[in-house]
């Protein structure tokens, strides 16, 4: 070996050797080994791969050990924090008007949680996806009118149905409205047969069936009361159905008040009346008749104080003791209708009178009423061509008072100048001049002239509706005074003397308002009327207007004057 080394050290380099073979690539694959034959409790299988090929001789199994005994239960953990309270549900229902959403209206139902706990559903709590719209259905067609009940009673002769005869009572609906029960209207299941009783062993006749009708003036649902139709056996054989004999009854609405009854509008019921003599006194100055209207609600024929629903007096006319008085039938007494106007000097340049010497005269305290004018017509002194009669269907006459029910104490209107002259002549008087009318309106009870703007003074503040019947220019709603004081008659005249607060010192009523009052001052075919009317704004005393003499208008009336002044002057008519 030493020789070889020495040779090598001294010799040239040897040639390279051949390359060795490449080594193989190694890898490991790990998988779960299921419980089974290789590992009773499962485990992990480790395989070695060389160049991707499993080397079976190098595979290893690592098996899980057997399960250990279960350990004891651990200590419980601490309680968790309390959860928040839940929210109550809330509902809100809103009505929907008829329109695009619901043709006939309906309701919107909104739902949500009442988060602020105020027991209602607020806007920000609504859950839109739960909102429902419920629309009303369309209105059904109107039903047909019902039918009245009708009854037919037929006598049954002796025979198979009733040995001793009797009555067959048939009932049904009067479908053809002829107020009787026809064959085709009978409801068989309601038919009843009432047989006369059998003859007694001793030969006594059996008791007859009997029917009776009693009028009941007051019955619920019946305007004119009802007819009570009763049936039964005539137990005492007196041919009258007595209360103790009634077996059945039916009530049928009457189509008019029964015999002895009249329909009273003020009570809206059928009433009977009782007349007694009324002595001279406050109700009737010269005596008369007291008429009481009675609603016999239980039909017992006994009159109770509580059943008297209205009382009127028909007073006897008399001759009034004083020349300035007139008998007023509506009041049943003599009433002073004239006021005495003393003589004096009247100066008032605004109406064209610088200084006028006025003689004493009398003037009516109120405008001439329909009742007073009627006495002239009935006496033949006032002719029909000079006045118009009330006609509800005529626009020119529907506010006229003559011929209108319950307007006897309203002023006579719709009368022309000639008709007014006829009446004043009938009363031994005449129409006043413009100066006489104005002088009387300004006259005080002390005999002096007070040139106030209105009969009650000079103030224009506030409303004057308590003092005169006119169109109230101070009312913000622009209403007629009459509309607020006489609701049943919205526009038109009021009974004379309805505004005592607006009377003059002499006691003259309605100097302003109600109707314009004619004077004798003319301008061609026109006459001058004073005081204004119910359809005008309030005038001051000296104002007036011209109208044609021949016109018959609702807003114009009159009062009369006469000479000399009567000696008796009653300031409170």
Layout of strands and helices, then pairs:
Blueprint (H helix, E strand, L loop, with lengths): L1 H9 L15 E8 L9 E8 L2 E2 L5 E4 L25 E8 L9 E8 L18 E4 L13 E8 L9 E8 L18 E4 L13 E8 L9 E8 L12 E8 L8 E3 L4 E10 L9 E7 L13 E8 L9 E4 L4 E4 L1 E4 L2 E5 L4 E6 L2 E4 L5 H9 L38 H10 L7 H9 L38 H5 L30 E8 L2 E5 L13 E5 L7 E2 L3 E2 L11
Parallel strand pairs: 24-27
Antiparallel strand pairs: 1-2, 2-3, 2-4, 5-6, 6-7, 8-9, 9-10, 11-12, 12-13, 14-15, 15-16, 16-17, 18-19, 20-23, 21-22, 23-28, 24-25, 25-26
Question: What's the N-to-C terminus distance?
Answer: 181 Å
Tell me the quaternary state.
single chain
| Structural shape | elongated
Rg, rounded, reads 56 Å
Helix fraction, binned, reads under 10%
Give the biggest sheet: 4 strands, antiparallel
- Total number of beta strands: 28
Low-confidence stretches: 1-11, 473-490, 568-573
Helix segment tally: 5
Mean pLDDT score, rounded?
81
Strand content: 25-35%
Structure classification: mainly beta
Explain what you see.
The chain is mainly beta and 573 residues long. The protein has five helices and 28 strands. It has helices spanning 2-10, 370-378, 417-426, 434-442, 481-485; strands spanning 26-33, 43-50, 53-54, 60-63, 89-96, 106-113, 132-135, 149-156, 166-173, 192-195, 209-216, 226-233, 246-253, 262-264, 269-278, 288-294, 308-315, 325-328, 333-336, 338-341, 344-348, 353-358, 361-364, 516-523, 526-530, 544-548, 556-557, 561-562. Strands 1, 2, 3 and 4 form a four-stranded antiparallel beta sheet that branches. A hairpin with a 4-residue loop joins strand 18 (325-328) and strand 19 (333-336). The radius of gyration is 56 Å and the shape is elongated. The N and C termini lie far apart (181 Å). The model is unreliable at 1-11, 473-490 and 568-573 (pLDDT under 50).
């Amino acid at each position: 070996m030493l020789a070889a080394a020495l040779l090598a050290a001294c010799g040239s380099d040897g040639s390279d050797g051949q390359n060795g073979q490449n080594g193989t690539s190694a890898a490991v694959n790990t998988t779960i080994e299921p419980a089974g034959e290789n590992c009773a409790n499962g485990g992990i299988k480790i395989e070695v791969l060389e160049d991707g090929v499993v080397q079976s001789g190098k595979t290893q199994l690592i098996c899980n050990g057997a399960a250990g005994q279960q350990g004891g239960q651990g200590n419980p953990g601490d309680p968790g924090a309390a959860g928040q309270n839940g929210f109550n549900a809330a509902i809100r229902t809103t009505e929907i008007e008829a329109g695009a959403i619901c043709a006939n209206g309906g309701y919107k139902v909104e739902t949500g949680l009442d988060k602020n706990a105020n027991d209602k559903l607020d806007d920000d709590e609504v859950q839109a996806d739960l909102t429902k719209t419920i629309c009303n259905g369309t209105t059904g067609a109107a039903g047909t009118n019902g039918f009245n009940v009708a009854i037919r009673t037929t006598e049954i002769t002796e025979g198979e149905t009733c040995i001793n005869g009797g009555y067959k009572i048939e009932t049904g609906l009067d479908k053809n409205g002829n107020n009787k029960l026809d064959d085709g209207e009978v409801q068989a299941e309601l038919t009843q047969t009432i047989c006369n009783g059998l003859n007694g062993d001793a030969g006594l006749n059996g008791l007859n069936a009997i029917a009776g009708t009693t009028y009941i003036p007051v019955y619920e649902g019946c305007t004119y009361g009802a007819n009570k139709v009763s049936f039964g056996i005539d137990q005492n054989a007196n041919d009258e159905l007595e209360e103790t004999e009634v077996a059945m009854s039916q009530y049928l609405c009457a189509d008019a008040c029964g015999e002895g009854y009249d329909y009273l509008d003020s009570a809206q019921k059928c009433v009977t009346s009782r007349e007694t003599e009324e002595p001279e006194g406050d109700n009737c100055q010269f005596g008369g008749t007291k008429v009481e209207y009675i609603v016999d609600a239980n039909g017992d024929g006994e009159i109770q104080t509580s059943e008297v629903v209205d009382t009127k007096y028909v007073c006897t006319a008399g001759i009034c003791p004083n020349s300035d008085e007139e008998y007023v039938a509506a009041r049943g007494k003599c009433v002073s209708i004239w006021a005495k106007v003393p003589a004096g000097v009247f100066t008032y340049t605004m109406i064209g009178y610088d200084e006028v010497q006025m003689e004493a005269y009398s003037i009516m305290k109120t405008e001439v009423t329909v009742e007073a004018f009627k006495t002239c017509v009935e006496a033949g002194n006032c002719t029909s061509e000079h006045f118009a009669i009330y006609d509800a269907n005529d626009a020119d006459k529907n506010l006229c008072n003559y011929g209108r029910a319950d307007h006897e104490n309203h002023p006579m209107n719709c009368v022309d100048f000639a008709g007014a002259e006829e009446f004043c002549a009938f009363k031994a008087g005449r129409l006043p001049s413009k100066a006489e009318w104005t002088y009387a309106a300004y006259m005080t009870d002390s005999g002096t002239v007070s040139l106030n703007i209105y009969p009650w003074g000079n103030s224009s503040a506030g409303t004057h509706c308590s003092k005169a019947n006119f169109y109230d220019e101070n009312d913000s709603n622009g209403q007629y005074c009459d509309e607020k004081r006489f609701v049943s008659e919205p526009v038109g005249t009021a009974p004379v003397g309805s505004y005592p607060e607006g009377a003059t010192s002499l006691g003259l009523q309605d100097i302003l308002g109600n109707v314009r009052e004619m004077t004798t001052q003319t301008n061609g075919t026109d006459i001058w009327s004073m005081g204004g009317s119910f359809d005008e704004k309030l005038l001051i005393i000296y104002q007036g207007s011209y109208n044609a003499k021949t016109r018959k208008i609702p807003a114009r009336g009159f009062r009369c004057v006469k000479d000399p002044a009567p000696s008796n002057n009653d300031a409170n008519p």
